[in-house]
Amino acid sequence: MKLMVIGLGQCGGRLADDFITLQKRAHDFRKVEILTGVYVVDTDASSLRGLSQVPQKNRLVIGENKTRGRGVGRQSEVAAQIARDEGFKVIDAIRQSKRFAESDAFLLVGATAGGTAAGCMPVIAEILKERFRDLPVYGIEVLPFEHEESLEKINVTNTAYCLVNSKANMDAVFVIDNQRYAKKGLSWSSNISEINRAIVEPFYGLLCAGEEKKRQHIGVSMLSTSDVQSMLSGWTTIGYGKTLIPMITLPWDKQGDETTSGRKAMEEAISELSVQCDTKQATKAMYLVSAPEKEIGTDLVKYLGEFMKSIAPEAPIRYGDYPVEKGLVDVTAVLSGFPTFEKIQGYFTSMDKQLAEMPKASEVQKVA
Ligand SMILES: Nc1nc2c(ncn2[C@@H]2O[C@H](COP(=O)(O)OP(=O)(O)OP(=O)(O)O)[C@@H](O)[C@H]2O)c(=O)[nH]1
């Protein structure tokens, strides 16, 4: 599956950078292409200067006449208006991408608490849907850390605004809860870099599998681009788990059955889902197991299918196996089509309370 990635705001820009790293890995190690282009869009020119991978010509500053390139200072409604006025610049830029015609979908990436991405993502999604009716529009939306929710009400208001409008304009929204990725004992910058790598990693196999051309890497059951597209809708969560395969097994090493590594990887993928959820409410599910061919036995395939059915009993389940030599078994699990997530409801409730306390209806209320 080949994506046209558009990163919005500072967080979206950094994640776009990490998607380029994935693309390079796919190109070097799997000899496949998984992106047709990567663009970043910001109201703050200085954020764009911090990026390392996205080509200069693909970095777009919008709203300069309003903000002089200094950002919208968390005001998502200002960013939304800028996107309405200047969204055509984004469309013009991506259309010039040499491989645009090969795109299977758009992926908009950004955080919900700041102003730029929260305001722009839903508007850009709407414009893309109008202009390119055949291409699905997906979002990766990063929720704030818990401590940020209590710091400023605007973090919650922006988040609620962004979520409600993205849901209306996107085919599926991958909800990523920063708090679930936060690791203690790391510096802020290394923590964010690690979180970003963890956010993009699950997409690697999922995107590569459908693009594989080498016969030895084509699984018995392939998870094609159309499989992935049909299993994505509305609120979505993604998880990734991996188990290293020991290089040498000594005679006295405890023998597990042949499914042990795959089971552990699947259990980790589900416990590491990107947002806390009741998996039983998923209405669509898919998973991809990727491992050396000899590790993907019939028992493992059966176990993984039964496991998935037990946690998402109402969902149709698509799966794929991806035989690649890499010293580990990994599983990417995607659960989609949720009616809501508890975390999202929390934002809506909190926003309702804030609106009730305000003397006048705000723009947010009108849009919601
Ligand atoms: N995972 C992750 N979260 C980030 C990153 N950068 C910022 N955030 C989170 O994103 C939110 C702030 O969003 P930003 O991307 O900085 O804001 P913006 O969209 O650029 O909007 P403005 O700064 O108001 O123009 C906060 O919740 C941060 O914790 C990042 O690189 N990775």
UniProtKB/TrEMBL annotation:
**Similarity field:** Belongs to the CetZ family.
**What's the encoding gene here?**
cetZ
GO cellular component terms, A-Z: cell division site; cytoplasm
User: Which residue range or ranges hold the Tubulin/FtsZ GTPase domain?
Assistant: 2-203
| PANTHER family attached to this UniProt entry | CELL DIVISION PROTEIN FTSZ-RELATED, TUBULIN-LIKE PROTEIN CETZ
- Localization (cell): Cytoplasm
- Please tell me where GTP binds in this chain: 10-14, 148, 178, 196
UniProt-recorded name of the protein: Tubulin-like protein CetZ
Q: Name one Pfam family in it.
A: Tubulin
Q: Does the keyword Cell division apply?
A: yes
Q: Can you provide one Gene Ontology molecular function annotated for this UniProt record?
A: GTPase activity
Q: Which InterPro entries match?
A: CetZ (IPR032907), CetZ_C (IPR048737), FtsZ/CetZ (IPR045061), Tubulin/FtsZ-like_C (IPR037103), Tubulin/FtsZ_GTPase_sf (IPR036525), Tubulin_FtsZ_GTPase (IPR003008)
Q: Which GO terms describe its biological process?
A: cell division; regulation of cell shape
